[in-house]
Structures are given as C-alpha cells and as structure tokens.
Amino acid sequence: MIRDRSLLFEGGEMGVLLIHGLGGTPTEMKSTGRRLSETGATVLCCQLAGHCGTEADLASTRWTDWYVSAEAALSQLEARCSTIIVGGLSMGAVLAARLAAQHSQSVHGLVMLAPTLWYDGWSTPWYRFLLQLFIQTPIGRRWRFMEQEPYGIKDERTRTIIANAMFGDDSSEAGLPATPGSSVLELSRLIKTVKKDLHRIRQRTLIVHAREDDMADLSNAFYLQRHLGGLVEALVLDDSYHLVTIDRQRKLVTERCAGFVETFIGDDARRQDYQMGRRYVA
Asked: In this UniProt entry, which residues are annotated as the site Important for substrate specificity (predicted)?
C-alpha cells in the first residue's frame, strides 16, 4: 500500500493546490508550498494516484485516476477556502489546467510551471517524433523510459542529490528512475484532452518556463499563451532546466508565484469589503 505523502500548509481562506509531475512526488512542490503559505494561504501539495510507489503502481493507473486525485484535493480545499488557485509542475501543470477548465466556478487562478505539452527539449532524442507511435504499440506500452542526465536540473550539486535519491530504494522523495511506456501514453491522452479546452480557461494564469528547458522547449509556453482564453503572465528563466521548483532559480520562481497569489488575496479583500458595504481605499 502506498503511503500518502501529500503536504498541507495551514493558512487562511485563500487556497492553493500544487500538483507534482509524472513519476514525481509532492516533495518537488514543497519549497514552493512553504513560501506560498507565508502569504497566509492554505497550501495543499497533493499526491497523485499510483505515485510515490513502484513503477508497477504507476503503470496500473490511467490519467483519469491522476485527475480524480487532483479533483479530490480541490474538494478538500473548497471545504475550507473561498478563493482557490491551482498550479502544477510539468504534467501537474496540465492537470491543473484541466481543473481550471472543468471547475471554472471553484478555480480562480492558474499557475503552470514548466508546462509540458510536448517532450521536445534539447536533451530529448532526435527521433522523439516517433515516440507517439511507439508508445501505442504493445512493446512501447511495456517499455521503461529511463531518466537521463541532466534529469531536468542545471545545478550540479542539486542534480547529484536528486539522482542519488532517485536511483536509491525509496521513490517517495525524488520520484522514479524510469517511467513506464503506458504512463507516457496516458500523459499523451491527457494532453490531447486538455488542448481541446484551453480556450475555455479564462482564469488569470501565470506561466513559468526555462529558456533552456531540457525536456519541454519554451515553445510549450508560447503555445499556451496563444491558446489560453484569459490573461496570461509569463516568466522566462535564464538559469534553470525543467524542474524549476528545485533548480537554481527556485527562489525567483517561488517569489513570483507568491506575488501572483498575493494579488488574489488583495482581490478577495476588495470583494469582502464590497459585500460588507465598505469602500475600499488602495
């Protein structure tokens, strides 16, 4: 049985849901969650179905199972928060986008960190365009895609720490060293579903992406800017790879996210003052 590794930072009625990536863990969102809690928000870093266990555990789940986990976490925040922002890293950003599309009344803002619609970064193989065909074959679904250097991390010291943890016996902290082909196929199905709904996402959105992202090229962020239905803010990092929440510019990322959250806290205060008949003075 997989132990629940979700992280909850207690706070006020402003809620933030953070979702980790494919094969990842809530730990990759921990520092971001801690910083956002300092704004007074209640922050939940959820754990997706099949994660923090073995490759077999992950392979036994579908993208709909991951989404159900995210929906359950959203419901948990809805029970205690009046305003909610959803965000995620890599695949987690794609799941967050689906939550925003499907729960437009509950989700007020969206944060997409290194959003991945295509694996087209500089470290991906030249034959990547064939992977979509390969993973749909029986052999492809059984294939194990091993993690390769630089593992999404530019900082060498951090990379060594993560690699040692990832290739150790416990996947609950740094994630799995390999991703089942069936899970990559499920991710492609999730992405296909979400891309159809991007125009419906009208919540204010923050996108953070590294110019040197080794797994997902900056074109992923440009695509989202063009197709999302609402206002989009963007931060392009110049000294980071894919895992922006733990790489060299993680403090810049958390500060920008905190500033984004604080604008919603301000909006919420204005809304409450208006409802109580008070004039808000900036």
From this structure: 161
